[in-house]
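At this stage, I put together one protein's amino acid sequence and its backbone structure tokens, which the following lines show:
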Amino acid sequence: MEACHSPQQSNVTSYGATTVAIVTLEAFAGMWINAFIVCVLCLAWVKKKTLNSNEKILLLLGCSRFCCLCFSWIYYFLSKIYPYYLLIHPILQLTQGAYSFFFSSNLWVSACLCGFYCIKIANFRNSFFICLKVKIDRIVPWLLLGSVIFSLIIGILVYITIDEAICKNLNFTCQGRIFKSSIRIDEHFYPINFLTGFLHTASFMAVIFAAVFLLFSLWTHKRKMQKNSMKDLSMDAHIRAMKSILSFLVMYSINFMSFILTLIYSTSHENNIQFLVYLFQHAYPGVHSLILIFSNPKLEKALLNILSGVMCKVCMK
């Protein structure tokens, strides 16, 4: 006897396949862009035997964004195409814990990059700021290590929270390997949502402060140059850094709004809103990394060389 499928079920299946295809294109494009950053910086590391502070931050940022996109896409793909695979213990815990770790690392390392640009480029007479400018290259590795450790703690907490919620509120079958949901477990994630909200807010505020300080420094520096009727190379450095941080600010603002929408619609069935949130979350790491590539002469040159080589091969065919 053949199974009957209603038009509504067919539309849902078609909608799910379409959303998965769009998210997959975004995720794989973002992974390629961040893999490019990692490869270029690793090759430079092998050649020079060292990396400057800016390159260290970009390298860790590229790695965290690549892995974040990878685990985010795995979860989205399974939830839409093979949802029952998420019911196999501990796939859900591992994917969400790993995603939380790399997502948190992405946010904190991005905030570190903004702070680094601000401290390195801005000109203030304050003794504390001058001390930071002198020691920033020695501080950066410790900031990155702290970001990784803090992100690891968040990832472990997410894993433990999901695992405990499942153990308490789900009926297990097949010797505990596959479970069937019996009640909602949203209330168990309130502490995690609070911690994630704090993470978003803290990193967002760091970007805002970096943008304000750098803008004020640019304004004061421009006034001095106008009074002295002089042009300075640091003005160009100010402008380049300001463009980078403003791109951070715009992307962070949209990312923060998507986080708020995720909290609002996490327990509802607003598929369109959730899809838009997923759309931006998968586009953000790739788009912003592309902006970073074109603001870095070394990365931009390497990308243009690759694109020109590809175009030559295409034209020869």
Residues 127-169 form the longest helix (43 residues). The first strand starts at residue 170 and ends at 173. The CA atoms of residues 64 and 206 lie 19 Å apart. Helices lie at 7-48, 53-80, 91-121, 127-169, 190-228, 233-265, 271-294, 297-316.
